[in-house]
Amino acid sequence: MSIDLIYVIAGAAMLLAAVLPALLERYAVSAAMVLLLLGMGIGLLPLPEGMRLDPLEIRPQIERVAEFTVLVALMGVGLALDRPLDLRRRASWRTWSPTWRLLGIAMPLTIGGVAVLGWGLGLAPAAALLLGAVLAPTDPVLASDVQVAGPAVDLDAAGGSKGRSSDGADDAEDADDAEDAEDADGSGLGEPVDEKDDVRFALTSEAGLNDGLAFPFVAAALLVAGAGSVSSWAVSSTLHWLAWDLVGKVVIGVVVGVVVGRGLARVAFRSRRPSLRLAEQGEPLLALAALVMTYGASQLLGGYGFLSVFACGMTLRAAERSHDYHRSMHEVVQRLERLLTLVILLLLGMAMTKGVLGELDWRGVLIALALVLVVRPLSGWFGLRVAARRADLPGGLGRKETLAAAFFGVRGIGSLYYLAYAAGEHRFDDERWLWSTVAFTILLSVMVHGTLATPVMRYLEGRRERAAAVGTT
């Protein structure tokens, strides 16, 4: 690819990153839709012969760029969530009920549904399982239209502007009062945090966690591919996968993220040296330093780095929750994420009209349509409705909210990363077909979800406001 053309594409992406969000705010059109279509149009132009976007040739570059983009998005998601999660309190776990259901029920069902469909359509078992794992996680990068906007800062609680150094005493007292309220009358968490939109919270928290939790299933697909067939996968391999890939790496990833997040938060907010209290200086680059440090440490220790980065972001957010430093960090991360996303979408759109869809057939189209319109919505609905929490409690969803949370499982950059990673670990005979199917699924998801996100979320917000107005009269 010509370096001059790269500069042009990067410059166009920067300009669009600044213009598109405000320009499209009122319309049922997402920036991702515009960028993909623009990239497809550019791909139809006569481009330099050396500019090849064959995913098999540039797989390492796809893996690294997509990997970093997802990491940036995960840090942003971790910083954006206002709802606390206290692992020691059952009441706090309950407010995250939609998240656990989407992760523990909907995601495995989605993986299984896609894998079974792919196997039934003639894919090898390993390729079918890989396709399910690659397409199952919702994307933290492209789902901004249905996610929380960012960290809300209560300036009154923060003492006016910069927050208070309370060593977490206020948060602990609030958590105690909230749990006492639920234990007393079962009515919820008193005055909850970030309870205005459980749909956005569910989709945001799901996107933050399921990118890391898809890794065990990618590992399973690689193990099956190495064994040659499912029947050749020995009992010892199954036990190793359960103990290490499914449990061990998850635990390591979460622990590393929490430890690094707490250490950096202590330095940034409560260091004895003023020069190290970055929160007082308002230096937002701590978020990027935390991202890189956490991911590297987790990978070195064998954990899932994606989970670590999200856990680190949440841990930083939990420190001095009312401090406006969190907003500063989130804004920097969000801007970088937006720029990376637009560049990737432009290139992906160009690749779609330069041959990446060349192996797409009716099987790939059927799988994509089934995933977006049937498998994910049904899996999400089932997961959210089984023994559902009451809709008037934090973490409870009404029927229409459940439909929205089940439907908006946006696919995107994470799927590109997982496929590139797996293709680097093992050679799949159907690799070109897998790239075509994944690219088409992303295109379908961006168009369907991007068109419906704005009107659906506005409808739900208006419905909630009307209910609140009736309740106050």
UniProtKB/TrEMBL annotation:
The domain of life is Bacteria
Q: Chief location of this protein?
A: membrane
Please name the Pfam families in this protein's record: Na_H_Exchanger (PF00999)
Q: Where in the cell is it found?
A: Cell membrane
Q: Which residues cross the membrane?
A: 6-23, 28-45, 65-81, 102-135, 213-234, 246-265, 285-318, 339-357, 363-382, 403-421, 433-456
Q: What is this protein called?
A: Cation:proton antiporter
- Which InterPro entries does the record match to this protein? Cation/H_exchanger_TM, Na+/solute_symporter_sf
Q: Which residues form the Cation/H+ exchanger transmembrane domain?
A: 15-144, 203-458
Q: What keywords is this UniProt entry annotated with?
A: Antiport, Cell membrane, Ion transport, Membrane, Transmembrane, Transmembrane helix, Transport
What topology does the record note for this protein and the membrane? Multi-pass membrane protein
Instruction: Give the Acidic residues compositional bias ranges.
Output: 168-185
Source organism: Terrabacter aeriphilus
Where is the segment annotated Disordered?
157-194
